[in-house]
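User: I'm new to structure prediction. If I give you an amino acid sequence, what do you actually give back? Let's try with this one:
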Amino acid sequence: MSEHPTGDALPEYAERVLDVAELIPPGRVMTYGDIAEWLGDGGPRQVGRAMALYGAAVPWWRVVRADGALLPGHELRALDHYREENTPLRAASRTAEGHVPRLDMRRARWDGASGGAPGGAGAVGDDGGGAHT
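Assistant: Good question. You get back a string of structure tokens that encode the predicted 3D arrangement of the chain. For your 133 residues, that looks like this:
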């Protein structure tokens, strides 16, 4: 079992969540619910909890809310990563607080099985696939 930076052993569920997060290609994302579905265990809240407690060492910005909103309190750091990785974004509406864009979930979402090109084969919704392999 892996160890957390503090030296504590990771809970088995958290380790599995982090393993999936590390598989997500640059420029793509999975929702908390997608990861729970992929694992066949837990739900979005359990995945979110694992990411909040242990996710700093993995590409945390690739695990997102289903509505495409950026993680509150981490929007600018995440946005830097999304721009660097060419993750598909939607322009912010004029009413959006801080005019922060959202992820374009239709194009950025990864099904966990296909190639990593954003918006191409493997985007959830392109073929009706879910997060299962």
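You can read the tokens as a compact description of the fold. Here is one thing that stands out. Residues 119-133 have pLDDT under 50 and may be disordered.
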